[in-house]
Amino acid sequence: MVSAYLPSVMTNALAFGALGDPTRRAIFEQLSGQPSAVGDLARLLPVSRPAVSQHLKVLKEAGLVTDERDGNRRIYRLDPNGIGELRAYLDRFWGSALTAFKTVVEQRVAAPREEESNG
Length: 119
Hints:
Blueprint (H helix, E strand, L loop, with lengths): L1 H18 L2 H12 L2 E2 H7 L4 H13 L3 E6 L2 E6 L1 H39 L1
Antiparallel strand pairs: 1-3, 2-3
Helix pairs in contact: 1-4, 1-5, 2-4, 3-4
């Protein structure tokens, strides 16, 4: 059973690791608005074109971006498959997090009422 989840866990670890860097997050966020070439991204960031290329390589290896050739340049865009896997991973925790939050709020709302009725 564990081996069935291992590829997904490794993909998620790479994705979270890739997004742990502020420059890669900035590139990721920029690509969420529109596909872009390396030069276009480099003009928006305080890093060189080669550095942007290296960051894109990490994002691509993590399954978060794809690229396609457009003449003599490459256009990068978010990879919906990789983002879908990451979202599915986070969604597994979302329901339980909301339930726990609801419980805490209900306990805090109920506590003053109990004090009023006891006082």
